[in-house]
Design goal:
CATH architecture of the largest domain: 2-Layer Sandwich
Largest sheet: 7 strands, mixed
Strand order of the largest sheet: 13-11-12-10-9-7-14
Number of helices: 15
Pfam family, one: HisKA
Distance between the termini: 121 Å
Keywords: Kinase, Membrane, Phosphoprotein, Transferase, Transmembrane, Transmembrane helix, Two-component regulatory system
Number of strands: 14
Structural class: alpha+beta
Protein name: histidine kinase
Helix content: 40-55%
CATH topology of the largest domain: Heat Shock Protein 90
Region (Disordered): 506-525
Domain Histidine kinase: 246-466
CATH class of the largest domain: Alpha Beta
């Protein structure tokens, strides 16, 4: 009879015990305790209702007693399983190492960091590691549940899940945890990287877990600082972009009024100006307003490019006509400066499919800068030629040039190379940055080479043939531009870089010769 009773208890308890992940000794221990609880519960079954009849009617005492008996039995069974696996059970699963195995505790003492050996519930059985003594000075005793209790509350779930994964035949796992450490300012949490390896018996049952924890607080602090700095920089950059856009919009309205009224005064629509000084002042007002409007428009375009809101209007146009329009706009400036302005477009260029306004803006900025920094008697040239599927726009000058150590500064917004020559000329340092942004929007790039005292050559390369199906599809895809775009330095970037051949040819008056890309058409201003 007793054997049948024990078999019945074992069959009822078996589905609730995780026998596949627990050591056999612990399973046997849990069965013994459940048998004891079952025997005590059956003994108490008639006693509890009879005791309640002393205070309650029989009709109420019997169901209340049955409910109380069932609750007490379940609580006793749960307490028997969870509270019974104490240190004596751990000692029972500490099997002797197999013959030939080294003393693992000695090996653990050589490991870096803090090495803790845990039982299958995560409780610490022993502490090792080369840095254990240093770590333990700042920690409470990690034995038993001490280690888990020192883990940050929000990290304990991840730690226990890692243990569960090892119970389910996982070979190895790792988890980031924060451990409480004492300091002069009170308890603080340090970041640890914990690698966990299971120890199993011959049958694959989990016996223990070896965890190697290393302090990574410094790395975590540096990562947090880097993330905070990146977020701050992004926020500042967004604020700068919004500021430029807002200022540009606010300035354009009064500037348009200034230019409009100065045009009215210069045209003498409402009466004659009395003397030449008045006409000179009106002209200066118009010139200054035009210059300021140009700066505002450049700032607005740059803010659009940086925010990714600059939209290209791709359409076919003739490159020669775009260059001629730029020459017409800048020829007066070149004549006043005493600089020759020449262009050469090979016949093979023809039409390209791009944003004509953006291409003209690129040319105006480059040619305007070249004229500005070229002395009287100098030469500025614009060349256009096809190289495969690319249009190469080359702007060369015989001006002051740029020192090799200054080239890397070019292209940064609001940065202008400072020397005795540039201080005489106004400028915002936005021109080349805008040129590169517009070129990159087209999927092209900008390269520059210069020799101080000899001249500068800037080459803009943009795709010119998007008539194919693939090219047309690419044209519809929004382009993301790195801002400020990187500048490509041609050659070795040293000051001994040779002057472009076209400039040398123009100096010798060989404007009518045929270029390498076809017959050259030359214009001079």
């Amino acid at each position: 009879m007793a054997g049948k009773w024990l078999s019945l208890v074992d069959d009822a308890a078996a589905p609730w015990l995780p026998r596949s992940v627990l050591a056999p000794a612990i399973v046997r221990h849990d069965f013994r305790r459940l048998r004891t609880v079952a025997a005590v519960s059956l003994t108490a079954l008639p006693i509890i209702p009879l005791a309640l009849t002393l205070a309650l009617p029989v009709s109420a005492a019997l169901p209340a007693g049955a409910a109380l008996w069932a609750s007490a039995s379940l609580l006793a069974a749960a307490a028997a399983i969870s509270g019974g696996r104490a240190e004596p059970i751990v000692a029972e699963v500490e099997v002797a190492p197999a013959p030939g195995l080294p003393d693992l505790d000695t090996a653990y003492d050589l490991f870096a960091g803090l090495v803790t050996v845990h039982d299958i519930r995560g409780h610490v059985r022993s502490v090792h590691g080369r840095d254990a003594r240093e770590y333990l000075k700042l920690m409470r005793d990690p034995q038993g549940r001490g280690f888990i209790e020192q883990i940050h509350v929000s990290d304990r779930i991840a730690f226990l899940r890692a243990i569960d994964s090892l119970r389910l035949d996982s070979e190895r796992t790792a988890v980031d945890i924060r451990l409480e450490r004492t300091s002069a300012d009170g308890p603080q949490f340090a970041h640890f990287y914990c690698e966990m390896t299971p120890l199993r018996d011959a049958e694959g049952n989990l016996l223990a877990i070896v965890a190697q924890s290393r302090d990574v607080s410094e790395g975590a602090r540096l990562q947090a600082e880097a993330a905070a700095r990146a977020a701050h920089a992004e926020s500042a950059n967004d604020a700068k972009t919004r500021f430029l856009a807002a200022v540009s919009h606010e300035l354009r309205t009064p500037l348009n009024a200034i230019l409009g009224f100065s045009d009215v005064l210069a045209g003498e629509y409402f009466g004659k100006l009395e003397n030449d000084r008045q006409r000179e002042y009106v002209s200066l007002i118009h010139q200054s307003g035009t210059h300021l409007l140009s700066v505002v428009n450049t700032m607005l375009d740059m803010s659009k490019i940086e925010a990714g809101r600059y939209e290209l209007l791709r359409e076919p146009f003739r490159v020669a006509e775009a260059i001629a329009a730029c020459e017409a706009m800048l020829s007066h400036q070149a004549r006043e400066k005493g600089v020759r302005l020449a262009s050469r477009v090979t016949r093979s260029v023809g039409e390209i499919n791009a944003d004509q306004r953006a291409v003209q803006q690129i040319l105006i900025n480059l040619v305007g800068n070249a004229i500005k920094f070229t002395d009287r008697g100098g030469l500025v040239t614009v060349d256009a030629a096809r190289e495969g599927a690319l249009l190469k726009l080359t702007v060369s000058d015989t001006g002051i040039g740029i020192a090799a150590d200054k080239l890397k500064m070019l292209g940064q917004p609001f940065v202008q190379i400072q020397n005795d020559y540039t201080r005489r000329y106004e400028g915002t340092g936005l021109g080349l940055s805008l040129v590169k942004g517009l070129a990159e929007l087209h999927g092209g790039d900008v390269s520059i080479r210069s020799a101080e005292g000899e001249g500068t050559e800037v080459v803009v390369s943009i795709p010119c043939d998007v008539s194919s199906i693939a090219g047309a599809e690419c044209a519809r895809v929004p382009v993301t531009v790195e801002f400020p775009p990187r500048l490509t330095l041609r050659g070795d970037g040293k000051s001994d870089v040779g002057e472009p051949a076209v400039v040398e040819a123009l100096r010798k008056g060989e404007m009518g010769r045929e270029g390498g890309h076809g017959t050259a058409q030359a214009k001079t201003a």
